Amino acid sequence: MLSDLSSRSPQRSCNQTPLLKRTSSRATLSIGQSSKKKRRFSIPTFDFETTELGSPPASEALVEETDADRFLAARGSTTLPLNSTPRTNRIAKSFGLVDDRVLNCGETSATPAQTKVRSILRKCASELFSTPRTISAISAKSNLAIRKQFVMALDGPGISLNLFASPMAWSHSNCIGVAFKQNVYFQNLDTRAIVRLCGVPAADGVVHSVDWGGIANRHILALGTTCGIVQTWDSLTQMQISDWSEDDSSVGGIHWNGDVLAVGRKDGRVSLFDIRSRKRIEHVEGHKRHVIGAKWSPDGRYLATGDHSGSVHVWDMRARGFVTANDRKVLMKHEGPVKAISWAPWQDGLLATGGLFPDGKIQLWNINKPNAPLTIPTETNVTALHWSPHCKEVLSTHGLSWEPWHAIRRAEPPVKQAPRTPFSNSMTVHAYPSCDKIVSVHAHSAPIGHACIGPDGCSIFTVSPLEETIKMFKVWSAPAGKGKDDRGMSYKCAIR
Fold it and tell me: N or C end of the chain, less CB within 10 A?
């Protein structure tokens, strides 16, 4: 049987090419497998009929001048047919490459003459619709920035070197009062007459702070000594009005509110005196350290105080308590002593506070809104703050500067080794609410210890105890028909 099978099988020759094993192709397999997705090929068609045979190659063609940006490629006159197939059209739509939405910075077909005309038209249109930014004549940029020199200078030997002292004040009757050790002098800036108002015995200490009364009591000056003595004097009669000497705690900051005088104490209390009473009428407790700054709000409702630890409290005179927000006390805190305090006269509740070493910051608070304050870092002692009553600007005076590592180590540098910064010994005006610096003037060659604003709200007196000089600067201007006439404050000569 085996022989029969062998005889029936075909005979292969050795020279015949062996047959390859047939394998199934992917196309054949995909016929019976409907679950697998068929591959689609989208082949775009191009039209080359517009190409001329005699045209030069791309490298030899002239480059067309255009006004397009060199960083963004300009769209060419011929583009690829992105919508040749449905699938390519969907992709082009998803990338925003359909229609005329392709990024294009310039028209390639524009001639140089058309480009020049368009640029001239754009310039003319921008000048037509743009509003020129004018500088207000009231702002410090139109006054102090133009004339940075002082208007008047006075000698100040013997002024207290204590950084926490407030030895100078400016009255509504245009008199400048200054404390020199145990004596108080004032000068009438209209008549230039200098008068010694009063003096205290050496046993009562040194006159630490002075302040003139308001409009109703413009001729009354209050003083406080380092031994706790508080007195009031009449500048017209040069007679003593009252003497409150029952408290021996050293005086800090003082400020008038009508007939009521607020006096900060070393033990953290704030004493309230009425000029019509011989005794203290009330005292406010809330601080734990020496109260070195005190300021009543323009409406007389709030009293802001700052102490040696950097805490700031606002006391409501009507409610006889501290200001609260959402049943929580408004936390106002600096990292250094707070002496400089000022209320904005044109917005209710807007308060500016400044910190001494190691804080060196100006903070702008709104006691009616429990928001974080606006902060202006200076890395310099902030010795005084004054808002302009005519525009939204605030002035700050500065003394010694320091490096950040001085604040970390809590070691204030000596005067001769202190670094020199733009805020050192300067008088700087800031804009509100942007907090931008408008102008800064180096008013003294030594640290500024204190400053006061004039009755017209335009001029500032600064004092430098180390320099022993008092200077007056014209910072702002009053609007037309407002403010006090400052003819008696503008002197061409210096009183030395």
Answer: N
**Model confidence pLDDT, tens digit, residues 21-37:** 454 444 444 444 444 44
Pairing, β 380-387 against β 374-377? unpaired
Pick the most confident of 283-287, 322-326, 356-360: 356-360
Q: Are the beta carbons of 443 and 426 closer than 8 angstroms? A: yes
Predicted pLDDT at 127:
73
Phi/psi for 8 (5° steps) reads -80, -30
Please enumerate in sequence order all residues whose Cβ is within 8 A of that of 208, keeping only pairs 6 or more positions apart, or say none.
160, 162, 165, 166, 167, 179, 224, 225, 226, 250, 251, 252
Tell me the CA end-to-end span of the chain in Å, nearest whole number.
147
**3 state DSSP class of 116:** helix
User: Nearest-CA neighbor of 226 among 211, 206, 246, 254?
Assistant: 206
Overall pTM surpassing 0.70 (yes/no): yes
CA distances from 150 to 89, 143, 184 (A): 75, 12, 24
Tell me the per-residue pLDDT of 51-88, one tens digit each, with 9 for 90 and over.
Answer: 444 444 444 444 444 555 555 455 555 455 544 677 77
Q: Which helix (H) or strand (E) holds 459?
A: strand 459-464
Q: Record the tokens describing residue 442, joined without a space.
A: 């180096």
Say what the pLDDT of residue 114 is. 67
Instruction: Report how far residue 453's alpha carbon sits from residue 385's, in angstroms, rounded to the nearest whole number.
Output: 9
DSSP string of 271-287? EEEETT-SSEEEEEE--
Rg (CA), the chain: 41
Cα 40 from Cα 448, distance rounded (Å): 83
3-state secondary structure of 305: strand
Q: Is 222 in contact with 242 (CB distance < 8 Å)? A: no
Closest to 401 measured CA to CA, from 376, 382, 419: 419
Q: Are 246 and 281 in contact, with CB atoms under 8 Å apart?
A: no
Q: What angle do CA 140, 172, 247 make, to 5 degrees?
A: 110
**Nearest to residue 435, comparing CAs of 394, 475, 465?**
394
**What pLDDT is attached to residue 40?**
53
Confidence of residue 267 (pLDDT cuts 50, 70, 90): very high
State the Cα–Cα distance between residues 243 and 246, nearest whole angstrom.
Answer: 9
| Pair of tokens at residue 435 | 């907090």
User: Tell me, what DSSP letter sits at residue 473?
Assistant: E
- Contact 341/312 with Cβ under 8 angstroms? yes
Model confidence band, residue 320 (pLDDT cutoffs 50, 70, 90): confident
Q: Dihedral through CA 155, CA 157, CA 161, CA 166, nearest 10?
A: -60
Secondary structure of the chain: what % helix, strand, coil (to 5)? 10, 35, 55
Cα-Cα-Cα-Cα dihedral sign, residues 283, 288, 294, 298: negative
Pairing of strands 332-333, 328-329: unpaired
